[in-house]
Every structure is written in structure tokens, then in C-alpha cells.
Design a protein that fits this description.
The protein is mostly beta strands and 357 residues long. Helices cover 7% and strands 38% of the residues. Strand 2 (25-26) and strand 3 (31-32) form a beta hairpin. The protein is globular.
Length: 357
């Protein structure tokens, strides 16, 4: 197989340049998705398809989890006592927006071998979902055991960030990547079709405005607001919606008079878990993670819901993938590309002020 040097890989993003929009069936993934520039994946067990964008509208059908549909447009319609009033129009009717993950269907040019001098590469899932094969059963993670209980194979979802540490050519001549989550993984290893994953170059994770002074993140967790803003010298430079802890007090507030918690650890990706063995949870491939409080509270990407603007998390600050990545690149400390992980102490990291206005 042809190899490329570590320098070539890091210096350029040519590995990702082969991404093309899929209009029909992609040969290695054994699944057909609608031919549309904009798609939506049903992120919950099932949703009603409504005749109108209104909770009181007649239902005209049902979509089940992981169904992928053309996302025609987003409209506003009533849903009492909810912050979110967003609905997605599909070819069959309207579905409530928070239950639909915005996705795309992009195929990538695989690498034939691991770049010289590199232990692995970071990749992003660029298709609605892709099935994988567990290389070392039985599954250790409760997430994968849950998938199995639904009679689903292991499956990775659009926007997840993962670590690939091996490349092989299958008997069918297609390239497969071995997915080995680098952080938080209890030991599960997977093989998946390489076309579903876009290699991430060093250039796209370079810091944003590293010379800017007095950076601060302000998160408003009030039920009616649910926002995050980034400031440089008191000037707002970024703003997005969030989802904080669904249960009261699971997202900690900053003490009065404090400049905020400080980001102490950042990771390209991590498998998160929490709760007890009986009632716990575990989610793999969470991208662009910035921990700011103790061991478990972070700002991070979210692929399992689209309910930004309402409390929905276990305590973390859930944001959309593109928002999480921007914040990750902008905030300190700077994360080494290959390691994808950094830990600092004291006030070295960007302060995060959590308020409830």
C-alpha cells in the first residue's frame, strides 16, 4: 500500500478533499439514504408525522429511530410549555425539530495505510450513520449493549469524532478503519467502512484568535434562555444555543464575585459515562470536549438530540457540533493535534462563568 509521511498528512487536508456528496447508494455501507443536500435523522425511538407544524395537528404517520429523511425546511409552530417551537418539514409532513439530528451524506476518499510516524488519525463521521463490526465481543460499553438490545448493530453517527489506529483492505477490496476510542473507552474495538469517516487535518483544529486577551465564556442556564457567549476584552465574538442540565442544579453555577470556572482539560473526543451501574449512561465519540468543573462537566458536541434552547443534559453544556468545535478551537489551553488531550491547572484555561439570569 502507498504510504504518506506524517508531515504531508498534518500540513495538508488533502485526505479530506476526496469527500463527495452521495446521491444514491454508497457501495461499502450497505444502506440507502435519500438524495438530498440536507437530511434529518430521527434521534429518538419514534416520532409522529403531523399534518401541520402543530402539536394538536392530526398525525399522518410515524418515523422510527435512525430513519433518515429529506430536511425540506425548518418552520415555527406551537408546542405549549416548550421553549422550542421548531418543526422540520419532510416529504410526508412535519416532525418536531428537537427529535431530528441535522445530518449530511458525504463519502470520503479513504487512506490506504496509516501515515508514517503516526499512531493513528482523528476522524469525523460524515454520513447519517454507519454500521460497524465489533472486533472483540462481547461489548463492554453500556451504549453498545443498549444497541444490541434494540437488535441494532454497533452504529456510529454523523458528527461523532473518533480515533482510528489501524487500516486494512477487506476481501471485497474496500478499505476499513479500526475504531479504537482513545479516551474513556472500556476496551471495545470496531471495524467500519472507511468511506464514512473524514480524516481531520491539523489545520482545521488550529486555535482561533490565540492572541486575543481577556477571553471569557458566559453560559446562561436559565430555562428561558439557554445560551452561551464568548467574549474578548468584553466584546462578544460568538453566540449559540445550549442545553444544560435537565435536572435542577446538575449544572453548577459560578459563585458570586468569581470570574468563573476554568477549563482544565480538553479532548478531541471522549466516551463519557455517569450514574450508577444500574441506572448509568455511557455515550461514545463525543467531540470537541472542554471540561471546566470537576471530572464531569464540560462543553461538548451533541449528536443524540437537537433540543438546543432547552435543558436536556445530565449536567454538561450540550451544543451543536459546529459550535462545540469553534469554542474548542477558541478557548485555552491549546490541545496537541496528535494526542488530542491536554490537562492544565490553576487559571491557565479560559474562564467559564455559569449564570442564571
Amino acid at each position: 500500500m502507498k504510504t504518506i509521511s506524517r508531515k504531508e498528512f498534518i500540513k495538508t487536508s488533502s485526505l479530506a478533499a476526496g469527500a463527495i456528496l452521495l446521491a444514491n447508494r454508497y457501495p461499502n455501507l450497505n444502506e440507502e439514504f435519500p438524495a438530498s443536500d440536507r437530511l434529518g435523522r430521527i434521534a429518538v425511538g419514534k416520532v409522529d408525522i403531523m399534518l401541520r407544524p402543530d402539536y394538536d395537528s392530526p398525525s399522518v404517520g410515524t418515523y422510527y429511530e435512525d430513519t433518515v429523511v429529506p430536511w425540506l425546511r425548518e418552520v415555527i409552530g406551537p408546542w405549549p410549555f416548550r421553549n422550542n417551537q421548531r418543526w422540520v418539514e419532510t416529504e410526508d409532513g412535519y416532525i418536531w425539530g428537537p427529535n431530528v439530528q441535522p445530518v449530511k451524506n458525504l463519502l470520503n476518499l479513504p487512506i490506504g495505510a496509516m501515515p508514517d510516524g503516526m499512531e493513528g488519525i482523528w476522524v469525523e463521521v460524515t454520513v447519517p450513520w454507519v454500521n460497524a463490526i465489533l472486533d472483540n465481543p462481547p461489548a463492554r460499553s453500556s451504549w453498545w449493549r443498549m444497541q444490541n438490545s434494540k437488535n441494532l448493530p454497533p452504529r456510529f453517527y454523523f458528527s461523532q469524532i473518533l480515533w482510528v489506529d489501524q487500516v486494512k483492505k477487506g476481501s471485497d477490496g474496500n478499505i476499513w478503519y479500526r475504531i479504537n476510542e482513545r479516551y474513556g473507552n472500556p476496551g471495545d474495538l470496531f471495524w467500519a467502512p472507511a468511506e464514512a469517516f473524514r480524516p481531520i487535518s491539523q489545520a482545521e483544529v488550529m486555535p482561533i484568535n490565540p492572541e486575543a486577551e481577556n477571553k471569557q465564556i458566559v453560559v446562561d442556564v436559565a430555562d428561558s434562555r439557554q445560551t452561551l457567549a464568548c467574549f474578548e476584552n468584553g466584546k462578544e465574538v460568538y453566540y449559540c444555543r445550549i442545553s444544560s442540565g435537565k435536572i435542577p442544579n446538575t449544572t453548577p453555577l459560578t459563585a458570586i464575585g468569581s470570574d468563573g470556572f476554568h477549563i482544565w482539560r480538553k479532548l478531541h473526543s471522549v466516551q463519557m459515562s455517569g450514574g450508577s451501574n444500574q441506572a448509568g449512561w455511557m455515550i461514545p465519540g463525543i467531540g470537541w470536549v472542554s471540561f471546566f468543573y470537576l471530572e464531569g462537566i464540560a462543553i461538548h458536541s451533541t449528536f443524540w438530540h437537537n433540543n438546543f434552547g432547552e435543558p436536556s443534559s445530565h449536567g454538561c453544556i450540550n451544543v451543536a457540533p459546529e459550535d462545540a468545535k469553534w469554542i474548542f478551537r477558541w478557548a485555552s489551553p491549546v490541545t496537541p493535534y496528535q494526542e488530542g488531550d491536554i490537562v492544565v491547572s490553576g487559571k491557565e484555561g479560559t474562564p467559564v462563568k455559569v449564570v442564571e439570569y
